[in-house]
Amino acid sequence: MDRKRIAQRISQLEARLQSQEARLRKREQARDIRRKILLGAFILHHVETSGDRKQLERLRDWFRRDLPAFLAQNGGDGLFPDLLEQSENAGHEEDQR
Q1: How far is it, in rounded angstroms, from Cα 88 to Cα 97?
Q2: How far apart are CA 26 and CA 32, in angstroms?
Q3: Inter-CA distances, 82 with 60, 64, 68, 69, 90, Å
Q4: Which one, out of 26, 27, 61, 71, has a CA that is 20 to 30 A from the CA of 90?
Q5: Are 83 and 77 in contact (CB under 8 A)?
Q6: What is the pLDDT of residue 95?
Q7: First vs last Cα of the chain: how many Å apart?
Q8: Which runs of consecutive H residues, i.e. helices, occur in the chain?
Q9: Do 84 and 64 touch, CB atoms closer than 8 A?
Q10: Which letter does DSSP use for residue 86 in this model?
Q11: Measured between alpha carbons, how far is 38 from 44 in angstroms, rounded to an integer?
Q12: Whole-number Å distance between alpha carbons of 29 and 27
């Protein structure tokens, strides 16, 4: 085999490797996005269906405390007003005790 053919074969193999690496990165990114979507869906489902008011209020407190900064960093301002608003029942429950 002459040098030109060897160099051409090496170039082909490098291009194939880059293509395989790009495909792997794309697959990993898709998996990461799917995980995030499913986790978010799970949390939202829990918020919407939870019968445990204390646990739900703790979760909402956590959202109100930590979610705004996370959303601001990631361009998500305004996406979750329902999770960040004060619970109407929170003050009333304290008054009833």
Answers
A1: 16
A2: 10
A3: 10, 10, 12, 16, 14
A4: 71
A5: no
A6: 42
A7: 88
A8: 3-49, 53-73, 81-84, 88-96
A9: yes
A10: P
A11: 10
A12: 5
The CA distances from residue 48 to 6, 22, 76, in Å, are 63, 39, 20
Question: What is the spatial distance between Cα 40 and Cα 49, in angstroms, rounded to a whole number?
Answer: 14
Q: In which residue are the tokens 């998996």 written?
A: 31
pLDDT at 29 over 50: yes
pTM above 0.70, yes or no: no
Q: Tell me the C-alpha distance between 49 and 71, whole Å.
A: 24
For 41-93, the pLDDT digits (tens) are: 998 898 888 888 898 888 889 989 999 999 999 988 888 888 887 655 444 44
For 77, the 3-state DSSP assignment is: coil
